[in-house]
Amino acid sequence: MNEFPQQFYNQLMHGYDASFNRSGIDGERVATRLAKLSEIGLTSENGSSRMGFSTEERQAKEQVKRWMKEAGLDVREDGAGNVFGRMNGTDSEAPIVLSGSHLDSVPNGGHFDGPLGVLTALEVVEAWKKTGYQPRVSYEVAIFTDEEGSRFKGGLSGSTAMVGDVNQEEQLKLIDVNGDSFQKVIEKDGITVSGYFDSKRELKEIAAFIEVHIEQGKQLENQNLPVGVVTGIAGPCWLELTFHGEAGHAGNTPMNDRKDALIAASLFIQELERFPKEVSSTAVATVGQLHVHPNGINVIPGKVTLTVDVRDIHKDTRDLLIDEIITMAKEVAELREITLEVVENIRIAPVPISFQMQGKVMKAIEEQGIESYLLPSGAGHDAMIIGRHIPTAMLFVRSKDGISHNPKEWTSLNDCVIAAHVLKNLIEDLTE
What we know:
The protein is an alpha/beta fold. It has 15 helices and 15 strands. It has two domains: 4-233 and 350-431, Zn peptidases (Aminopeptidase, 3-Layer(aba) Sandwich), CATH 3.40.630.10; 235-347, Alpha-Beta Plaits, CATH 3.30.70.360. Helix 2 packs antiparallel against helix 4 (115-131). Zn(2+) 1 binds at residues 102, 113, 213.
């Protein structure tokens, strides 16, 4: 039997400040539940592997559903596999407040990305149960299906279905990493095609959505702060650039008579680094994949295909950066006397967080005696999908060394519980 869950629990509890056990919030309960979820899909490297729509994701959902019911929540699951646990407020007619995240993971990922958002949302209910508090507005804890997208290389499947942003024709074309169709995969999880596409929720019934998530970066660690206020969620654009040159013999082709596609790609990559900061302080651009053809030791590269991931929390500067990157790529190709092919694979609009919602998160943080710190989210989250339709906020929690999607992913229990207290303050503000 793997001893990791107990070791994980012990590590969480080591150094925990028991004074954070107040107002009904219990750090030991949070640690116990994080450790329990770590058992599901545990890898040989002590990471987490719970692919969307998998048996492991289903097991994790069922475990949290049991905790929801024990906390007295009314639990239901929609046609997309999203789970909602509801605590009724005194005003049954008022739009609800929703908080949560996801339980799926990337292959061999960490144990905080997703589960922390679900468990802190549930901890608010546990605290209210302990103190006998009932909100005026009904409150729901949410688990969204397939956020990470490691199965279909897309993700956010549950939240997209809930808000009704799914393109049915494109969704049914999806083939997973095992070669199985979207329909076959979801049916194995007990979900029907009709149920998935009919799971759109009446969004006017939701007043606000809050997501707690680990930062997956180092800004909070560098500031020595446990939590921070997200100002916006970056929208990615994925470009695929192909430089077409001429393959040739590495020994018989003079240096002044070459059309080397790899040299052109290298010049492009070197230039790319300076562009984002010239456009926006929150913009980034990354070359993540590089494919060289014919990829021979003694052959001049005739074709190079590379990907560029461009992100910013502001649409206008993100789109300006995309245009400038493409223009620069064309100039490099012209300089090297080769041709360029550009394909845009996705372009998702960024989601800024309103100043009003940022202010509410700041207030909740400062009520805990902590300095509020503003930072953007470079990664996509369910909040990005939901935030297009209803008021949304995100609370980031400090990540050790900024590591994420890795078994070494770590957030201290002190920081996890501080986040639960902040979320409780925020939810009480929103529900009253």
